[in-house]
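Hi R.,

Here are the chain sequences for the assembly we discussed:
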Amino acid sequence: MTARHLVIRILALLSVILGANYVIWRWLASVNWEAWWIAVPLVIAETYSLIDTFFFALTMWRARDRPAPRSAPEGTADVFITTYNEPVEMVMATARAAVRIRYPHRTWILDDGARADMARAAEKAGIGYITRTEDWVGKPRHAKAGNLNNALLQTDGEFLLILDADQVPHPDILDKTLGYFADDPDVALVQTPQWFVNVDDADPLGSQAPLFYGPIQQGKDGWNAAFFCGSNAVLRRDALMQLGIVGYVRSLEDSLSAALRAASRMLQRATADRSVPPELQRELSGLQEVVSTARSEIATGAPIGDVTYRVQTAVHEASRRLVDRDIAAMNADLEAIGELPLQRDAQLDALVVDDGGLDALAVRELSPLGAVAAIDGLLAALRVDRPDEAQPLQPLATISVTEDMATAMQLHALGWRSVYHHETLAEGLAPEDLRTMLTQRLRWAQGTLQVLLRDNPLTKKGLDAGQRLMYFATMWSYLSGFAAVVYIAAPVIYLLFGVLPVTAWTVDFFVRFLPYFLVNQILFVVVAKGLRTWRGQQYSLALFPVWIAACVSAFRDVVLGESLNFVVTKKDGRASGGPPWRQIWPQLTAIALLAVAAVVGLIRVALGTADGTGTLVNTVWVVYDLAVLSVIIQAARYRGFRPETAALDERQDA
Amino acid sequence: MNITLTTHDDYAVVAVEGRLTATGAPRLRQSVDDAVAAGRARVVIDMGAVEFIDSSGIGALIGGLKSTRLADGDLRIAAVPETVRRVLKLTNLDRVLREYPNAEAAFDVR
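And here is the predicted structure of the full complex:
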């Protein structure tokens, strides 16, 4: 362990201890219960932040520089460039760079937009071109995950380098990364940083994520939980295919158990129904036994094929018996009619229901079993070809609009390992306007929260404790929008109305709060080691409306079943239209309120109607909030990236 | 499934609505018997609103045919939807139960 790492560990430990000391005191001794409507939200927000601190400390505990792989690169490789609607020239620039990658490989453009000019450009350059197969017509497309899954079944490289359309790779990207797979046969993923060329030092949109593609991924890597981030990563085909197969089997098991459970319930109800004729009731209760046997067989891991076959056979036989009875009764009736002395009807002579008719009636649609809706649903669920999907195997996770995180988590749950390689090996383009950036962040947040709601890492089988916490930490950070609202509201309420959320800003408060706050900041500075992390800090608070919107829409999607739209991030410069003032009104309102509150607070002190210390603390707080929120105005006014030379040319032209 | 029995001067109409299956078949039989008991052995089954029929449903039609014939009457079917017609064809029963365009027409002809 290096000295720096030791310092980080000490600071990490201290900040958690001091934080716990402060927050426990807050709960037990300093909540102003008379103003509970702001006091309780504030102490909850502070608790939220403490947990966030804990996760950060835990991540940093194992952050380290990973040694380069020992093995030489080996194996066959495919390079996938995913595109949907990016300009052909941009995709081709990436593709040509991909062709120049030194390690032997094949390059493919995965064009989800199936554009003719893209196909022509690829062909002209001799680059592989893949679009969705016929199988996808009328089936869920699963956005980028679907695009990759489609390509997986049409290629055969052992390793897959995945690149977004704008991520221009360095020639040594495979040489640097493939060795990890040779070192450890359990490694399924090597992620490298995403770095953007069209961003200057000020980075008003906070596009570079130096803390994430640095200490945070390194820390997660220390817990064997480095994430897949969708691009600039190499994946092991074997691992993905295993994921696809496991997912397929699990989805069969799930749908089968659900169908059997529902069928069992409905059969029970039907058997108890007095209006059901006795012979049908007998068959139904027989079937109920078959279904409950099947359920226990599935639970003990019997082969799905055998179980479904037995159920299907039993249903068919029951069906046949019932139809036979009906037909026998009909034939008897017809015979009786034929024997009637009067009204003999010539039409009746020839009539006997033949075997063909019998077979036709015995299919479930026409048998009396069809009267029981459960049987229909049951038999549909027993199909093993997953008729609702384009391909039964969907290796990349399709449960979220951010397929990358979900996929990585499922790989980890199967026991695969991941690597974060901390060296920029591809250079991409960041969004250049606030509108596009907001959309992108919203999607990331929505996707992450979808995974939380659909596949909670805390309870997911197969993950170890560290991995659970690393995944949960990221999800937790997306809940910050609610805390941010409280952190903005509390000082405003104090300065405007003199309502105290804390019993007093006394020595007791400062001796607990300041050490926590300071150690936390020092930890941050040491970890960042000169990286520009202020933008990231600003945005984690300043985008509070986005985070809240993401929580709401993910909840509506997963819990209420309303679907989300997948939005492709625009990479070619700016979206049209001016600054999106309408989209950032919550931040603008907050800024106005904070400013007004600061002025009112000072006036109240001057008039002698407010407490000096309280006003000072809250004014400092307001200034901090304003410094953080100001980034949104800067971002809204941002005119896009201008390389210095281009700016110079323009000046000369003018 | 809903069943409505309407008696006319010399025939009765049994209108069936919904799915004519094992659970509804006994009730259809009962309605036909009721009509016969009320002295209307000539019965039209109005199938216009039948969504679906299974072998028990067909059995009930034949059962009704038998009980009306035993009472010197007849059972006829009217306004048969395509789904039901297909099943009747499949089992040759279209040759036993001739269909009429509507309930009023069923006993007009003779």
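Residues 249-381 of chain A form one domain. Residues 645-654 of chain A have pLDDT under 50 and may be disordered.

Let me know if anything looks off.

Best,
T.
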